[in-house]
Each structure stands twice: as C-alpha cells, then as structure tokens.
Specification:
Helix content is 0%, strand content 53%. The radius of gyration is 13 Å and the shape is globular. The chain has no helices and 10 strands. By secondary structure, it is mainly beta. A 6-stranded mixed beta sheet has the order 2-10-9-4-5-6, with no helix packed on it. A 4-stranded antiparallel beta sheet has the order 1-3-8-7, with no helix packed on it. It has strands spanning 3-7, 10-12, 18-25, 34-39, 46-54, 57-62, 70-75, 80-85, 94-100, 110-114.
C-alpha cells in the first residue's frame, strides 16, 4: 500500500523560505520519478517540480513559476523527496502534494500560506 506523508508547510511572510518533505512507503522508491504538485483554493492542481534519478545522477524539471526559487531533491536511503522553497510569494499559497510519476497516488498534502 502506497503511503505518502507530506510535511513542512506553514505560514510565512513573502520572501521567506520553507522546506517540504514527503516520506514514502509501499513502493520501490528508487524506481520512480517523483513529482511535487500544488493546488490553490478554487484552482486546478498544478505541476511544480520533478526529479528523475538514474545511475546515481539526477535531473530536475520545474514549472516556470517556481524556476530559480524552488529546488527538488531526494534521499533514497530515507525514501524521502524534498522541496526547498525560497523567495516565497503570495501566489505560492497552496496545498502541496508529492506524487510518484505516472500514478494516481497522493498524500494528504501540506498547506503553505504566504502572507504579510
């Protein structure tokens, strides 16, 4: 049974940083590309970032709206994927979810609110 547990969200002011974590179980973590998505109130869930790891090297891909501010990473030993978010803006306010690529598996999400 796939389990995804996101954490690290909170209320921050514009310009501040947060680091989200997603602890996983129930699947072969190293076999999967991992995504972060987010969903703001009244909006569709949108892609944020993706990390692909193959042969010890990783490649990453970001939505244009977060490029240069967010960094995705993963720790295979801990079966955890991270999202470092710097320079947060009010428009980053959303519930953030991790997702094994190509699956319909989602956790409960972690709420990020950016407000002065």
């Amino acid at each position: 049974q796939v389990q995804l547990v996101e954490s690290g969200g909170g209320l921050v002011q514009p310009g501040e940083s947060l680091r989200l974590s997603c602890a996983t179980s129930g699947f072969v973590f190293s076999n999967y590309v991992m995504n972060w998505y987010r969903q703001a109130p009244g909006k569709e869930r949108e892609f944020v970032a993706r990390i692909t790891t193959w042969g010890g090297t990783s490649s990453t891909h970001y939505a244009d709206s977060v490029k240069g501010r967010f960094t995705i990473s993963r720790d295979s030993a801990k079966r955890t994927v991270y999202l470092q978010m710097n320079g947060l803006k009010p428009e980053d306010t959303a519930t953030y979810y991790c997702n094994p690529h190509g699956t319909n598996d989602w956790g409960q999400g972690t709420q990020v609110t950016v407000s002065s």
